[in-house]
Amino acid sequence: MIDGADPAAYDPTVRRDERRAVATGLLPAAVVAVGFGLAAGVVGVAIGVGLALLWLRLRVELVATATALAFAGIGGSSPLAFGLVACGVAGLLAVDLAATWRSLRPLGAFVAVAAPLGAAAVVYPDAGGRWLVAVAVAATVALLSYGLHRYQLLSLGVLGEETANGAPGAGENDGGPR
Question: Per residue in 4-55, pLDDT tens?
Fold first, then answer.
């Protein structure tokens, strides 16, 4: 870290010291490896194992992005392989969410949103209409991500209650963009 840098700045690396979280995360990582194996054989399994090792050192959102790019790169077209990879990535996200929040409520909300979206993407295999599912998934994830972001800002006290109601709050200025 650079001297004078903000200690709360985003750091892409992570240390997974808690054995329980690592052990729990190995199951979804194995599901990802099996999905890649179905899509690309031994090379796919090697990619899945590499992504599992990547998950041990990097933040989960970077691993999810790398997984999506790797699946698109190998040309995975099997709905079963796609479903296994998607469920594995959702499992990794769920493990990280549970470890970060130390509560089952956000995990329950995540499953309630992710399960129907993932099921729709797997069940609707028509390539011509899959873009509709992709747009719906992207819009839902974007909306829920923004809602979670606002909730975190309010729960951490970065924004005051008056900001939630539309009036300028702590840390915001009245003069527009900076």
Answer: 556 566 677 777 777 777 888 889 999 999 999 999 999 999 999 999 999 8
54, 28 contact by CB (below 8 A): no
Q: How far apart are CA 47 and CA 37, in angstroms?
A: 9
Domain residue limits, the chain: 19-125, 126-165
Are the CB atoms for 110 and 64 separated by under 8 Å?
A: no
How many angstroms separate the Cα of 129 from the Cα of each of 4, 94, 134?
Answer: 51, 28, 9
Helix 60-74 × helix 19-57 angle, to 10°: 60
Spatial CB neighbours of 49, under 8 Å, sequence gap ≥ 6: 33
| pTM of the predicted protein model | 0.63
**pLDDT 10s digits, 116-132:** 766 766 676 665 666 66
pLDDT at 163 over 60: no
Q: Is residue 160 left, alpha or beta, with left meaning phi > 0 and alpha meaning psi from -120 to 50?
A: beta
Give the three-class secondary structure for 58: strand
Residue in this structure with the two tokens 């194996």, named with its chain if needed: 37
Q: What's the one-letter identity of residue 142?
A: A
- Helices 79-101, 105-123: inter-axial angle, 10-degree rounding: 170
